[in-house]
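Hello support,

Our group uses your service weekly, and this is the first time we've seen a run hang past the timeout. The protein is BA75_01724T0. I'm not sure whether the cause is the sequence or the server load. Input pasted verbatim:
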Amino acid sequence: MNSGGNENMSYRSLYISKNFNLFNRCVGLPIQYRNAVALDNIRFVQTKAAKEDVLNRYKEKLEKKMKEEGAESIEKLQEKYKDKIEKTKIELNRMDPLTDLEEYERKATKNGHKVTKLRSPRSPEAPVKPYKVLDDFLKLEKIKDLSPDQVEFLWRARFQEKENVLVAVIPRDIYQKLYTNARENPSFILPLPKEEEGVEIHFIQWAFPGPNTTHCMFTSLAEYKLHKEYAKPHTTLMFHHDISDDKDIVLMNGAVEQDANITLPETQLLVMNLQRFYGALAESPASIRRLQLLKDFTSGNENFSLDVVIQEAQSLEN
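Update from on-call engineer: The timeout came from a worker crash unrelated to the input. Re-ran successfully.
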């Protein structure tokens, strides 16, 4: 909405008018005094001219906002929006974990690791297919009176003859933890060891297309960074929780794309680490550390470390 955009502009204007500062350049002073004065002015003290220049540039917008909010002065307006100004500052300074991975990729290339061949993106004009629900695989009416073991048998049999598929039956309590963490941390990265390429990074995205369906998509980070929203996932997992309340199980199925540069065993390793990082295993110091990495990635925390992610993914500790 336009009003939201104007408010953001106002918050940024307030932030600039409050914090726009200049170094004292100490022109004409001997070098030793210039250094001393520079250190003394490390707090970026505003000059009167600089402050007036900023206020003049945003005067009309600030006065309009003052009138809308009934504020008596700019200082009163600043005080009113103090919390939102601080929030804006945090957002402006937030780290982008994906950008932080570029250094790791440069090192890998420098060390002679081969780069996996990239696939072409999906076409923006391609029609979006409707997502599949549990009833597309097993008719709910026919399984409603079956036991969990009988449902599991039918579920696994449904995909027995298919290639490059992943199938699982997950206890509801374990899935609930996975689901909660996915909601709070809808994207992440996972490493995949490669014999010739070293470690290949994959981007994880969660989606919630329906009330009883959750998707988890795996895309090579290189393809995601190149094609963004048009990158094609090499693997998509579908979680169906239609019968979780009645039978205490969640059904999962997934498939590896035929043209993907990844094998089924490699995908299974990614899925195993997906489970470990999203806390689906029992509580332990290792799972707590992995959950913290999830949160640091989501928040853009500067303490997030890809090296630590790789270390935790390769650790045998659960």
